[in-house]
Amino acid sequence: MKGIGYAILGGVFLTLQSTANAAIGTRLGTWHAATLTQGTGFVAALVILWMTREQSWRKLSQVKLRYRLGGMLAAVIIFSNITAFHNNGAALTVSSLLIAQILATLGMEKAGWFGKHTLQLRLPQWLGIGLMITGILCLSF
């Protein structure tokens, strides 16, 4: 249950961040907004890390380089979200983002990328995804 709470909190904050990024992007530009967001996020994470006195940096060499560079993906994510937000509005952007995340995650799980048993999708799961996509189509017209 704790994980669901954090997921909901993350979803709310993602929406708030998208709104703030769009406002910054309107005034300064999209890449400026991405830079500001990444910079303030880095500072906030660094302060929290310092406050919790986490000492895991010694294990950094155990993390593959491609995962260490994952933060670079955030620049593309922020740019895409800001651009989509300006073109589509908040509801359609967030809805489309969620569907894209679900489909990408299902594909990755199905391929076994997360090291667990491959996911077996049955009719109810496919119907649920179809209903979500139908909901997005209803939002866009």
Automatic annotation (TrEMBL):
InterPro entries: YdcZ
Protein name: DMT family transporter
Highest classification ranks of the organism: Bacteria, Bacillati, Bacillota, Bacilli, Bacillales
Transmembrane segments: 32-52, 73-103, 123-140
Key words, A-Z: Membrane, Transmembrane, Transmembrane helix
Keyword Translocase on entry: no
CC per GO annotation: plasma membrane
